[in-house]
Design goal:
By secondary structure, the protein is an alpha+beta fold. 33% of the residues lie in helices and 29% in strands.
């Protein structure tokens, strides 16, 4: 609300109120996360214009009924390969790029499985609002090679999931992805 107010307000008193609201929001975020107050303030002041969700795309790859995951350098936990969508690339182009960068595999996107609102799932609090897109992909080339963001690559069964990077994916989301593997005709989820 503060970002939208600062974007559209002309009245100096309203601007002052929205700046105060932004500061209160940063203090609340500091209380519920491990982020430093100054970093949160920088994140909040970095964005201008009307607030819209960021899009995170994840590539879902199965082999022998196991799901491909990468161990993230940033938190030493495991996630489905992916990341933020880059401007100028389609979701399919983004996931092809992300999977090759993080896992070494060259893939072909085949089906959009789920498009989710992060706040409707048990992710930890984050300073921005995200949508998460899960796209099923088939490996068409490449080999398992870590990238600058990853330190390991493995396939995991549904009943043997590793320590998850819950900023990126949750156990319930991964369980849902296994449902798509069992039932290829399951319709995409929009949530």
């Amino acid at each position: 609300m503060s970002q939208a107010g600062l974007t559209f307000s002309k009245d100096i008193y309203d601007i002052e109120r929205f700046e105060e609201l932004r500061m209160i929001s940063a203090e609340i975020m500091e209380e519920y996360t491990e982020l430093d107050l100054q970093k949160i303030k920088d994140l909040f002041t970095n964005e201008t214009g009307y607030q819209t969700p960021k899009v995170d795309v994840r590539g879902v790859v199965f082999r022998d009924d196991k799901i491909l995951m990468v161990r993230e350098n940033i938190d030493d936990r495991w996630s489905i390969p992916g990341g933020f969508c880059d401007v100028g690339l389609s979701p399919s182009e983004n996931i092809i790029k992300e999977l090759e960068e993080e896992s070494g595999y060259i893939v072909e996107p085949v089906k959009m499985l789920a498009f989710l609102d992060m706040n409707k799932h048990p992710h930890p609090p984050q300073p921005y609002y995200y949508y998460k897109m899960f796209i099923k992909c088939e490996i068409v080339g490449g080999n398992a090679i870590t990238g600058i963001e990853t330190k390991d690559i493995k396939f995991f069964s549904e009943n043997n999931l590793p320590n998850l990077s819950t900023d990126r994916n949750t156990e319930s989301q991964i369980k849902t992805l296994f449902e798509f593997q069992r039932n290829p005709h399951k319709e995409s989820i929009l949530d």
